[in-house]
Amino acid sequence: MFVNSLVEDEERYDKPAIEENVFEALEKDFQEVINELTGDQSLEKFRVEYEKLHAVLKKSYENEKRLMAKCRELNAEIVVNSAKVATALKLSQDDQTTIASLKRVHCIKLS
């Protein structure tokens, strides 16, 4: 159950807030706007601010992709470790059953 929810969570990490093709279209639009603004002194301040905003958006997008990859990696690690914990719990329960059985056998022999 826990592992299933982790697998579902992993599916969420496969899609960035801005899809790759949408980001590429934004990049193209940005270049077109910059080309139009270049040389127009009356819009120089706007162009500079627009470039700053674009740089921040680009950095945010790259960070999101990096963090999503890290989330996928950590989620996979959690899935592996939760399987190991489940196995350890099952072995522990089996050991407890074996110990109880051996105690009963030992008590019967002493009687």
Overview of this structure, please?
The chain has 111 residues and is mostly helical. The chain has one domain. The chain is 86% helix and 0% strand. It contains three helices and no strands. Helix 2 (20-37) runs antiparallel to helix 3 (44-110). The longest helix is centred in the last third of the chain and has 67 residues, at 44-110. It starts with a helix and ends with a helix. The mean pLDDT is 88. Keywords: Coiled coil.
The SS-based structural class is mainly alpha
Helix segment tally: 3
Bulk shape: rod-shaped
Question: Please, what is the oligomeric state?
Answer: single chain
- pLDDT < 50 stretches: none
Share of residues in helices: over 70%
Count of domains = 1
What is the alpha-carbon Rg in Å?
29 Å
Our estimate of the beta-strand percent is under 5%
Secondary structure tally: strands: 0
Largest sheet entry: none
**N to C succession of SSEs:** HHH
Gist?
Helices cover 86% and strands 0% of the residues. The chain is mostly helical and 111 residues long. Helix 2 (20-37) runs antiparallel to helix 3 (44-110).
